[in-house]
């Protein structure tokens, strides 16, 4: 087990009533982050979420966190936990000092997204976690989709990555986005479908979010899908990934992918969108984004693997996702820097297969329960 580097002095400061636009009033709490920005004490989390309980077996160090929503299992000193029968890896091990259990930030986020029934707003800062607990909880309801915003990544002066022949990411993303749009209009005429860009034009990342939020302002149950292609220094790197937003990336590679896609943020940021992006994340929106990512990834793999293998569902801090106030995912459809995958991604028939698989994923998501 890792040695515990913390200064374990506890502090919990409950703040004033706070209001963020579009949110109900609630009580904001600051929870200290220990261990150089890596851990939250379970007792601090429980102090603001009293429905949480934990059990820890003395001799095996196996424990669990429980709510009426479900439970999460772990072992002290391990960097894995289980949820709904699946095993998840953590960047840091779960620790225990005296009678206190310290949870890595990724695990805290898993608790907020999966074990809390109502919408909790949260934001990880350098030395603290801000949590807004609503005065009135919003009951869960069935998922549905009434509008879909399709974002073809890059465009215009921003070509994105390219393959060895000079074929650009912006062309693949627009091709798949158009097929997705056309199929949705044909088979789901009752759903509102909007494209951020319909031709080869440059759109700032913040303006993409702003466009999606305008749709959300007059249509309930909107989702956002952004299409991209991956790149690597190695031409052997292969596979697709589906991302949802998180301040704590799944892996260092996920962090680097987000940095690559975020590099075209404009010099003149929209102040309204910038304010939205700086707000707390919504646990309900994040949970739904993960469900959408899981559904899209499952259908993509069924339709296209092993031609393009799955690299799984991941999370990272993409600017285009952070600004969108609805369930949102970013699909890295494959590696343009891989000659075999590039050949497939350029093929119109293959682009249609990608579009159909994503639509099936959306259908699975819309048919599920929250």
UniProtKB/TrEMBL annotation:
One of its GO terms (biological process) is peptidoglycan catabolic process. GO terms for cellular component: outer membrane-bounded periplasmic space. Keywords: Hydrolase. Its EC number is 3.5.1.28. One of its GO terms (molecular function) is N-acetylmuramoyl-L-alanine amidase activity. The keyword Hydrolase applies. It catalyses: Hydrolyzes the link between N-acetylmuramoyl residues and L-amino acid residues in certain cell-wall glycopeptides. Residues 209-363 form the MurNAc-LAA domain. This is N-acetylmuramoyl-L-alanine amidase. InterPro entries: MurNAc-LAA_cat (IPR002508), N-acetylmuramoyl_amidase_3 (IPR050695). It comes from the Bacteria. It is an enzyme of class 3 (hydrolase).
